[in-house]
Amino acid sequence: MKSNIKRSIVRFFNAYGLKEYYLVFKYFRLTGRPVEKPMLISVVDHRRKTKGLTDRFKGIVSVYALAKAQGIPFRCVFTHPMELADFLVPNTYNWIPRLEELSESAREVRFRIMNKQPPLRRITNLFPLKKQVYIYAKVDYLDQINRKYNQQYQWGELFKELFKPAPALEERLKMHLDHIGSNQYIACVFRFQSLLGDFKEYRFKSLPEPGRQQLIERNIHALQQITEQSKVPVLVTSDSTTFLSAANQLAHVYTIPGKVVHIDNVADAEMEVYMKSFLDFLMLSRAQHIYCIGTNKMYPTDFPAYAAKIGNIPFERILVE
Question: Where residue 222 sits, what CATH number does that domain have?
């Protein structure tokens, strides 16, 4: 009974946007410093959970596309669970806000929480923009924005306008590109979540030991078919270190060492832990072809699909029977 009441209260707050007003009055002051410059601000911080890295990039690029279509300033505040600027820095568009250009006044700001698939008009009904709007988004609205504003924005091109690797990430990318021993390689991605028991993600359950081994063998067999046919090295990424260890036994396979984490579930980790996700993402984006492989029990992740958009390279899903 109590849980039903709690759910009803949560739905009420979500339905009427009261949570957005709560954020304004919790974090801003009526007497705070006003700033007259309206802008859209994509936010990833400790105040809201935003799922994985791909969902965060979906939201950031969508808000940037909307700001670009409207000809208004865009900024990104990405501080949780790490500072994005430690890994990706501005490329042709400077998305890092200067402290003095952000308002501290509750009169000057609004929040929009774009969970799941809320209508894009929840943002566009604020135009012409008169305030600074902080947006929590984890949805790809690019197709809708292109239709509404008669644009032909490409997700990968927008991503590259915003981001380039920070020096530490660029150094590691160069090292792995040198190690893979070729300017040409393909990539295979396997997303197990908690099925193999070595990657904790929310409350997903692990398979019993016999089921884990069977799942590994089925996916290794699919990978082996690709490696035997490929004339170039095969980069393999996965959220399972157990599977990566098995994949490393195959010829022509290259994996990137490091601990795999879900960045929405791990806070205050060392920089190298988060580095692995960015390395995987950008190494995938430089492949010739990306395959996402798995059984119907495995998660059809968008991580490789959006990496493929950056490099405008072929992407294919393979279902293991």
Answer: 3.40.50.11350
